[in-house]
């Protein structure tokens, strides 16, 4: 989709300004929201899932109207209205927690958002397999969400998003929280423990 004055993502300076303003009101770095958008839609406002009908930057489900023709700036108020009810009283702790709100928002209040918090298990109807379950453990943790975000936040598209955010005056947070920094370690240890347990079970058999 070609937009006059837009970058390779189809975003204009006005779009980035809207993202930065929304993130400031939410009390989190704008790239935390952009990271979720990168995972969900490759930061394309016109993205639409042909199977489930999810659409837009964060892949809204069950919308009554088609927003794939909306610009990023036009989608920002809708995105903010979605996240606001799930924002913890103390503010967003990490980009993984924001992704948790995108995926299974009710688990934030019920279960918390520490890296080892299990938010979905195989067979419970919420589990999405290898997309989030790093290491095929049979369950998904908040730490898995950070690993997913780390895997997609690189390359030319991501670099363009970061440049646009910075040009709009936004600060870059990266994975810079205690949760995000420890997530990969926690998930990695979990995979090692789980694999060791499976090997032990096979040995006993």
How would you summarize this macromolecular structure in one to three sentences?
The protein is mostly helical and about 200 residues long.
Summary tags:
205 residues, 50% helix, 2 strands, 8 helices, mainly alpha
Structure description:
The longest helix is centred in the C-terminal third of the chain and has 27 residues, at 178-204. Helix 2 (30-41) crosses helix 4 and helix 2 packs antiparallel against helix 7. Strands 1-2 form a two-stranded antiparallel sheet. The protein is mostly helical and 205 residues long. The chain contains eight helices and two strands, in the order H-H-H-H-H-E-E-H-H-H.
**Structural class by SSE content:** mainly alpha
Instruction: Determine Rg (CA atoms, Å).
Output: 18 Å
Going across the biggest sheet, name each strand in turn: 1-2
Termini gap: 57 Å
Number of strands: 2
Low-pLDDT segments? 176-187, 190-195
Number of helices: 8
In N-to-C order, the SSE pattern is HHHHHEEHHH
Shape: globular
**Helix content, binned percent:** 40-55%
Topology:
Elements: H1 13-26, H2 30-41, H3 72-83, H4 95-103, H5 106-111, E1 118-121, E2 139-141, H6 142-152, H7 156-167, H8 178-204
Antiparallel strand pairs: 1-2
Helix pairs in contact: 1-3, 1-7, 2-4, 2-6, 2-7, 4-6, 6-8
